[in-house]
Write a structure and sequence with these properties.
Number of strands: 9
Radius of gyration: 20 Å
Number of helices: 13
Strand order of the largest sheet: 2-7-6-5-4-3
Strand content: 5-15%
Distance between the termini: 17 Å
Shape: globular
Largest sheet: 6 strands, mixed
């Protein structure tokens, strides 16, 4: 993903690259997102406008999803089992029962983001702690009539949204820092959504640095200060299944999960997606995860070295944790970034420019 300096929104608004990238969207009703240009490219090779796993789709899970189409004349399981239990065990192998009772599955993270945004107390929305953040959370807040605050605004917000690791910048707060930030920044009796979609890329022991492993702290925070923390995951990136739409939400308490489930649209995760999730979180796809944790850091290191060499005269910089599946490049000059988008598309490897996708800065 490409940045082009502090004033990208003002300087790149009319660029050919951005105009082309938005051609598939009705911007009066939709929020711009990557992953659309590939279908229009005769020479398409790889889609670098999304942060999906470079290994592609886990093949055993894919075959299971295909086979599930044979029973698509039936409704999905109302309790979303056994996929829900498999995911709970993946998230917390030791204490999965406690996760399961607070877990919701949804049609991608988007549905669940909207559910929490609707249910949170009235008041303003704020991203944090970084100024730049992908816009799905802001989109939902704006659609529901919430005021949008800047991350550094001291005005208390009813709903705070943290993306950790942050998309697009790749900034990351380890668990001690994340908890301290919430404790010192978030007002009492408000709601926090923490998006950990890219956090499982951390390592095979990702849970140790995740809020998933902080059940007692989360319960205490709600009991003593009334701060409700929801943990959001989009699973379409790790398992490269954006077309299937799979998301999950771990609620602060079982009661919170029940309240949301009462207003959630039924059957929002279809039969192939449930079967995919069941298989991809089982032992049969462990090799896929092991390979992901092994190669992603090496792939990213190689790409960063080449990018920095290419942009050394222009002062390009790259941010983000080593374990992440994407590279955030600040090319300093809007025209350079716009030209990079055009050239990448011509080469069959679309990339994403910041304009129209991330939170206002």
């Amino acid at each position: 993903m490409l940045s082009n300096g502090e004033h990208v929104a003002q300087t790149a608004a009319t660029s050919e690259a951005v105009a082309e990238a938005k051609s598939a969207w009705d911007l009066e009703t939709n929020e711009f997102h990557g992953g659309q240009e590939w279908v229009f490219l005769d020479n398409f090779k790889e889609d670098f406008s999304v942060t999906t796993n470079g290994l592609g789709i886990p093949q055993k899970a894919l075959q299971a999803a295909r086979k599930a189409l044979d029973v698509c004349h039936h409704y999905p399981a109302a309790d979303q089992e056994p996929a829900k239990t498999h995911l709970a065990k993946f998230l917390h192998p030791i204490s999965h029962e406690g996760i399961h009772s607070r877990l919701l599955l949804g049609n991608g993270a988007s549905e669940l983001i909207d559910l929490v945004t609707r249910s949170a107390p009235d008041g303003a929305w704020k991203p944090g702690p970084w100024q730049v953040q992908y816009k799905e959370y802001e989109r939902s807040a704006v659609a529901l009539g919430r005021d949008v605050l800047r991350s550094e605004d001291p005005t208390p917000a009813a709903l705070t949204c943290i993306v950790n690791p942050n998309n697009p910048t790749g900034d990351y707060m380890h668990i001690t820092e994340l908890k301290a930030w919430i404790e010192s920044t978030v007002p009492d009796h408000t709601v926090v959504m923490v998006d950990e979609s890219m956090q499982p890329w951390h390592s095979s022991h990702f849970q140790s640095d995740s809020l998933i492993n902080q059940t007692e702290w989360l319960a205490d925070l709600f009991e003593t200060r009334g701060i409700a923390v929801y943990i959001m995951h989009s699973w379409t990136k790790l398992w490269s299944c954006t077309g299937l739409r799979l998301g999950s939400l771990v609620c602060p308490t079982k009661h919170h999960a029940t309240l949301l489930k009462k207003v959630q649209v039924p059957w929002s995760v279809n039969v192939p997606a449930l079967k995919f999730l069941e298989v991809v979180t089982s032992d049969v796809e462990q090799e896929f995860l092991d390979t992901t944790w092994d190669v992603t850091t090496r792939w990213r290191k190689s790409l960063v070295e080449r990018v920095l060499d290419l942009g050394k005269t222009g002062g390009w910089t790259v941010t983000g944790e080593d374990f992440l599946s994407w590279v955030w490049i600040d090319m300093r000059v809007a025209k350079v970034a716009a030209e990079a988008v055009i050239r990448a598309k011509r080469a069959g490897v679309p990339v994403r420019c910041v304009l129209g996708f991330f939170a206002s800065v």
